[in-house]
Design a protein that fits this description.
The protein has 21 helices and 20 strands. The chain is an alpha/beta fold. A seven-stranded mixed sheet has the order 4-3-5-6-7-10-11, with helices on both faces. A three-stranded mixed sheet has the order 18-20-19. It has a two-stranded parallel sheet with strand order 1-2.
Length: about 775
């Protein structure tokens, strides 16, 4: 036992405790007493092979299957703590012809997969994506790497390093093991990975306890780091005798997965009753007692002062957790369940044939066939004294779960475990975790904040990346997003680009300052035009009104009045009717107004030309000429608008792209080409009017009307020439505002330049509004 870890003594006691309960239970194998032999595997495959051969031989001679005495072969074998040890026992048992059933409670492939998923769920729960891993230096270690790396990578977990645990089989391996451990310790301490998963065996932690002492060696960093160790279920938190007082702070807060163990109420009392003086049949207790308590029994004291005599009154509960635990560990619990499983299988086999029970019972139990016991072992199902159900699946694997334990180091370097979580087939849950540790950060790159996305660094694992801001118009709502996403059409990114804000529905409405001011100016201009029209109607028989073609003047004033009023078709929420009418109404009315101006200038020019001797222009003079010009020019614009409405009618629409923060309700013009055709025709009329007026500006005319028309057309053309680039450069409701402003400005230019001089004469200088003054001006 000097080669056995002291904590393993509990496994022996779990075996003894289980058999003791069965022998005292009259419901299981009545009138039969179970016995057992214990063989030491020494945690070594060769020694396991030797022990198994002894188990299969009579009188401890290496002659397998040869029985020449009354010793009975064991009906079942409970395998070792490690899967490799159990595998050696199982293979040898099947190779030989002995009737032996191997009841191993080590991890099956299915439970290993469950364990992998459990450890992965821990990493995902704590968001540890940059981890280190220590594995056994054997085929199992390589298999674990081949299994875990793809599985963890699929869940965005990367390995900073994968190191192999040192192995120690012979004394000559010590130097190489020390060098390997030094390299491994350097790798652990220099890495940014603060989460370290260890897939070892039951003896691995004994070797890992050496790591803190490597800091005193050359070239090894001694800087402490808050590493969280995650240990696989095959491992136990154990120490050897000489490691009793070693510093173990590096393992404080470690997490370990263990086969689920229940609370056996009588086991603690059973342990408290163990004493070297009262258990003569226990051949292990004296050696264990001396190792665990660091004392010597009186019959073994050599007389040195350093030796402390054992009194037998020492308490097991006073031992450190790494030496011995009063609560049953996962491995001991598996041994306990294995004992009961074999007993229940034997009991079921003995009760299977009721008719021949009395005749065959003794023969079956003394030398049962292996295949028969296997059959009953797979089919049993029972509840143990802890209330846990014990059963096997169709492949013979134990149906169980895992406990996650949090190991906490006290001030006296004693560990105690805190049960944090249990996960069971087929579900995993890490919602309720009470871990006694400060959660460290174990990532290659700190998480990319919302508003940024990941950019993988070239030549490094995908867990290592740069964080780059999202492009304009895109967002990243969560941390560590691979790509930024565009908002829906009806929303836009906020300033930090981490969420989408609903766009506001907007149009040019009356309650906002811009819409209100344009509406006020349009109404004011309409009233002004109406007053001018009323003034001219009142003074319709005066020379200034008569001399400027009274009917054209009235038509021009009415068209200007309608131009000012048509701006109200552009303000407010776009409707189907307003969308159909506003551009065509504006185009036709404006063409009438400009046609009236053109007719006025043409009348002046033709009147001057008609005064020349022999001129044929006199037959064109008269009201019919002006009316024909207005009608024909307006008719052509009306035709353009009719084609527009018939083929490409305007309709209410929404623009979600032009203005990032707004949903602009607007009128879709249907055809931009037709819109610019209307504007182009107006431009043509205005240009023609300007050229004719400019040509006639020096001709003798009543009240210099040709000059005023020239100025009005100059204003008109300037406004609409600046309208086109301004209109194309604005967005949303401001496009509508630009068009309204152009309508108001050009209409006001015509009204002001043409009619303000006449109003001045009528209202302020009435003496100029006389026939004599008119004749004088013409002369």
């Amino acid at each position: 036992l000097w080669y056995v870890v002291p904590k393993n003594y509990q496994h022996i006691l779990a075996l003894v405790f289980g058999i003791k309960e069965i022998n005292e239970n009259t419901q299981i194998l009545p009138n039969l007493t179970l016995g057992f032999n214990i063989y030491d595997s020494y945690n070594n495959a060769d020694r396991t092979h030797h022990a198994t051969m002894l188990l299969l031989s009579a009188q401890e001679r290496l002659v397998p299957n040869y029985v020449c005495d009354m010793q009975s072969n064991p009906v079942a074998v409970i395998g070792g703590l490690d899967s490799q040890i159990s595998l050696h026992v199982s293979v040898l048992g099947k190779m030989e012809d002995g009737d032996m059933t191997e009841a191993s409670f080590t991890l099956s492939n299915f439970l290993l997969a469950l364990q992998y998923r459990g450890i992965l769920s821990l990493f995902l729960h704590f968001r540890w994506t940059w981890i280190g891993m220590l594995i056994m230096d054997d085929e199992n270690g390589e298999k674990i790497v081949q299994t875990l790396v793809p599985q963890f990578s699929q869940n965005h977990v990367c390995f900073a390093f994968i190191e192999k645990l040192p192995t120690f089989k012979f004394i000559t391996d010590f130097s190489a093991m020390l060098q390997q451990g030094e390299n491994m310790y350097n790798q652990i301490m220099s890495s940014k990975a603060n989460a370290l998963v260890v897939y070892g065996d039951s003896y691995s932690l004994v070797l890992l306890r050496w790591l803190p002492y490597l800091s005193s060696m050359k070239n090894v960093s001694a800087e402490p780091r808050g590493i969280v160790w995650i240990m696989a279920a095959q491992m136990e938190f154990t120490s050897l005798v000489y490691q009793r007082n070693w510093d173990a702070s590096i393992f404080d807060g470690a997490l370990s997965l263990t086969i689920h163990s229940g609370d056996l109420p009588r086991f603690k009392a059973f342990l408290q009753g163990r004493n070297p003086s009262g258990t003569e049949a226990d051949g292990f207790i004296r050696d264990f007692w001396q190792q665990a308590f660091g004392c010597k029994f009186t019959d073994q004291v050599t007389g040195t002062e350093e030796e402390t005599p054992c009194t037998g009154d020492e308490k097991l509960e006073s031992l450190p957790g790494s030496f011995f635990e009063m609560s049953m560990t996962g491995h001991s619990y598996s041994v306990y369940n294995a004992v009961y499983a074999v007993a229940h299988a034997l009991h079921a086999m003995s009760s299977s044939n009721l008719k021949q029970r009395e005749r065959t019972r003794r023969r079956e139990l003394q030398n049962p066939d292996s295949w028969q016991l296997h059959h009953f072992l797979r089919s049993i199902s029972f509840n143990n004294s802890a209330g846990d159900k014990v059963s096997f699946d169709q492949s013979g694997c134990l149906i169980t779960g895992f406990d996650v334990l949090n190991w906490v180091l006290s001030s006296n370097q004693t560990f105690h475990r805190v049960h944090s979580l249990m996960f069971f087939l087929p579900y995993l849950s890490t919602n309720k975790m009470a871990l006694n540790l400060v959660q460290p950060l174990s990532v290659c790159t700190v998480s990319c904040h919302p508003g940024t996305s990941k950019q993988v660094k070239e030549g490094e694992p995908f867990c290592c990346y740069n964080c780059i801001p999202c492009p304009e118009g895109k967002i990243a709502e969560h941390e560590d997003m691979d790509d930024c996403q565009k908002c829906e059409d009806k929303s836009y990114p906020n300033k930090d680009q981490d969420y989408c804000i609903p766009k506001t529905i907007t149009f040019l409405f009356y309650k906002e300052p811009l819409g209100l001011s344009l509406a006020f100016f349009g109404l004011f201009s309409s009233l002004t035009t109406a007053l001018v029209l009323g003034l001219f109607v009142k003074h319709h028989d005066t020379p200034i009104v008569i001399a400027n073609n009274r009917s054209l003047t009235y038509t021009l004033l009415i068209s200007l009045l309608l131009c000012f009023l048509c701006v109200f078709l552009f303000i407010g929420q776009p409707k189907k009717v307003t969308c159909l009418l506003r551009q065509t109404t504006f185009g036709i009315i404006f063409s009438v107004a400009v046609s009236c101006v053109l007719a006025k200038t043409m009348t002046v020019v033709l009147a001057f030309m008609a005064t020349k001797p022999g001129s044929r222009m006199r037959k064109w003079m008269g009201k019919r000429l002006a009316s024909s010009i207005v009608f024909s020019c307006s008719l052509l614009q009306t035709g353009i608008c009719t084609v527009w409405l018939a083929m490409y009618p305007s309709y209410p629409d929404v623009d979600v792209h032009t203005v990032p923060e707004e949903i602009v309700q607007e009128c879709n013009e249907g055809s931009v080409t037709m819109f610019y055709c209307v504007l182009g025709y107006l431009g043509f009329l205005a240009t023609a009017s300007f050229m004719v007026a400019f040509f006639a500006r020096k001709l003798p005319d009543s009240f210099n009307e040709a000059k005023f028309i020239t100025f009005s057309m100059l204003v008109f053309c300037s406004v609409w020439l600046s309208f086109v680039p301004t209109y194309l450069s604005t967005k949303g409701k401001h496009m509508v505002a630009v068009e309204i402003f152009s309508i108001l400005a050009s209409s006001a230019g015509l009204l002001g330049c043409i009619f303000s001089p006449k109003c001045y004469v009528i209202l302020i200088r009435p003496e100029l509004n006389s026939r004599e003054q008119l004749i004088r001006r013409k002369d």
